[in-house]
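In response to the reviewer comment on reproducibility (Comment 2.3), we provide here a single inverse folding case reported in full, input and output, so that an independent group could reproduce the run without further information from us. The structure tokens appear first.
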């Protein structure tokens, strides 16, 4: 999967699937206990500098971090323009996200950890190895079966819903980093020495010239 395909699938999935609230993979049991923490509350300290784990306990085990790293880098690998998703802190973002004590984040936590359990079972079934022991191409074979829900076989539907949400979170984490914005060629919030207005081609396209 290349990066542009990832963006296209992410947008298609967001518009068509209404994924929120699908829950865990059917039959998958997550063993990691839920983080016990208080949310920000009504008066967060917005000027504080926080580090991972300062606000609430993080969730990923060492094995889950390796799985998240591998899966992130299948979704957004390094290329000639940008680094991989894991290289810019997306795994840390995901761990912080699913550990947050808010309802939507708790749903994502159930979905992500249930998906990891499914991946482990599928990896054992296909390759007789845990996910961290797979080659990139072997993990890619599993992902090929679940990477696009409308085309997933009936046996892959629940796993494809997990993958859709994990892909959205990975892309959201990546494309809000400086490297991700550069990859999108987004130049907002960048001071310019001068601005000559929209190009004439753009004005003609929208009927203003």
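Designed residues, in position order:
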């Amino acid at each position: 999967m290349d990066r542009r395909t990832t963006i296209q699938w992410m947008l298609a999935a967001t518009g068509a699937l209404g994924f929120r609230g699908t829950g865990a993979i059917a039959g998958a049991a997550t063993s990691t206990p839920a983080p016990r923490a208080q949310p920000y509350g009504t008066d967060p300290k917005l000027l504080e500098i926080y580090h991972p784990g300062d606000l609430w306990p993080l969730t990923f085990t060492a094995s889950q971090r390796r799985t998240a790293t591998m899966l992130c880098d299948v979704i957004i690998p390094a290329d000639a323009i940008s680094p991989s998703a894991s290289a810019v802190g997306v795994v840390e973002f995901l761990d912080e996200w699913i550990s947050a004590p808010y309802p939507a984040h708790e749903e994502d936590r159930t979905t992500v950890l249930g998906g990891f359990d499914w991946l482990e079972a599928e990896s054992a079934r296909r390759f007789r190895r845990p996910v961290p022991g797979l080659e990139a191409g072997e993990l890619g074979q599993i992902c090929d079966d679940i990477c696009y829900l409308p085309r997933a076989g009936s046996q892959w539907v629940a796993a494809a819903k997990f993958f859709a949400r994990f892909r959205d979170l990975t892309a959201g984490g990546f494309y809000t980093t400086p490297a991700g914005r550069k990859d999108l060629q987004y130049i907002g919030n960048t001071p310019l020495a001068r601005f000559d207005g929209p190009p004439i081609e753009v004005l003609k396209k929208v009927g203003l010239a």
